[in-house]
User: Fold these one by one.
Assistant:
Number 1:
Amino acid sequence: MNQNDVEKLILLFDGNKLPYSKLHQTMPCISDDDVLSLMGRLSSNTRLFTVSSNATTDDIRRHGFKPGDVFTLTEEGEDLFHVAQKDKHLTDLAEQSLSEAKKATLYAQLAILLSVVSIAISVLMG
């Protein structure tokens, strides 16, 4: 899983909660091992969220998560959630600015064209 996938997953949380059914529906390519890793069950580096069930890691690896399982962000997960939200907001603003700049360029080109036409008419009417 790359950092973009992790941020997409974290942004799925709503009010600090994420049902497994929503995770599986939205990002079906993410494996249970990926989820376990982000829960800190396969490595001690990252622990972004926990799960509501009391199933052991071995049980989850054998049988998978259940549709009713609900994930809750940890403090580290909440921090990443806020960073990802800010990044998404900045990306949205940049895209909006680019769109507005393209419109402004089009309007400037139109103004130049109309100026040339106006000058040509003035010269011809002379």
Number 2:
Amino acid sequence: MSSISIINSIKNNRMVKKRGLSFKNLLKNNILSLIIFIGILLIGVVIAGNVSVQNGKVSIDDDLTVYNNKLFVDVSEGRVGIGTSTPSELLNVYGTGGSGGASILINSTGGSPYTRGSLQIINSGGNVAGRGIGIFTFNNNETANATWFIGNPRDFSAPYSDAFIIGRKGGSSMDFSSSERGASSLMHLSSEGDLSIGTTGGGARLTLYKNTNGTILKLQDSDGLCNHNPESSSEIVSCSSDVSLKENIVNVNKKALWDKYNGLVVREYNIISSGDKAIGVIAQEVAQTNPELVTSEKVSIYEEVYSENYGSAVLEKTGENEILLVEQPNPWELVGLIQDLKAENEELKTELCLKDSSYSFC
């Protein structure tokens, strides 16, 4: 029953009283009206607009307001507002909670572990390049640096056409924190692209920090691992060398080692990109004498190009370049060569001292 029906019922009661009906009937009608009115309140809806119910279906011909805009339906625009009477999108949630509160809470105790409490965002309209989708956040009380996008922008050109992006406008940094307010940073990515783990003050492309002495980096693959421990004047690198990991153990062939390294031509040169002077080998030359030390790899070439979609320059892949790599000498092979040299020197010393004991090394 609508509010109009309640008013009509009250009017009828007054007319009944004037006609001299019994107090019992009057009380009965008033109680019935009161029950209906309380029922509407318990439902929690005070309706402003034209609402009709037919065959179990509710039709709304005008805007619907529920308890001071707790819920608002804009019929003409097809928008729903929760906590606001001026929804700007299809669904506009306006929260007025205190610090740490949430406007939307998704909490489920049922369903399988793979779907429990999940949120799915799907965009299936438009062309491929126009199907960008994600979560966009903006704080009106702060600068543009508070603007975030998490998702797939579906840009028109690579490398962003099918990438998953976590981006922050304004060139600000990004932190992965153990605190909900970001007070303690576990990993920090600066606006220049420097990644720091354990600290926010890196200053290098990759910085690893630990406030105690010991291993700071561990590298491991299917056949071994190495621990890296920086010290005040050097770095200690310890690699797996347990006998249980090895087989076919024999003494090293020193002659084979000498043959391996005697063919290498060590040169001095300048690095084109930096101009720095360096000492090393040329991969093409090493491939002639020691092909087992040379491998190749394709490196992507990126150039800055202007993007009309972004209105600024972006990096775009323009091709690939194949370069040769040379394996660095195994330090234990060099130790074997040093031991061999020392043994030869001892033999020479013995022979020379037998001939002339006046030498200082005798």
